Amino acid sequence: MSVKSRKAEGADILDMKGPLKLGEPEQEFREKVDELLAAGSKNLAVNLTEVPLIDSSGVGALKYAYTTVNRAGGKCKFFAPSKQVRQILKLVLLDTVFEIYDDESAAMAGFAK
Q: What pTM value is reported for the model?
């Protein structure tokens, strides 16, 4: 798994590639979230386009990002999940908690500029 960040107007975008699962991928994602918050970022948009698979640890990592960013006074949004990832988030009812968008422009539209 690779996690890269880029700046956009109103938020930082995390581009993820590969399965988000127990071990190094999940840990790398959490560390990147912590790093961005420590650097002063408030708003995150997580790009799930290239995440084909997510396990329970990956779900926990997404939940961690969401709650940590909210506690810091920001917003965390997710966009472009694959059909399988969307089904898993729906199964654990996080689709009713997370802000999930179909594409980047829709996710970015809600951040303050």
A: 0.94
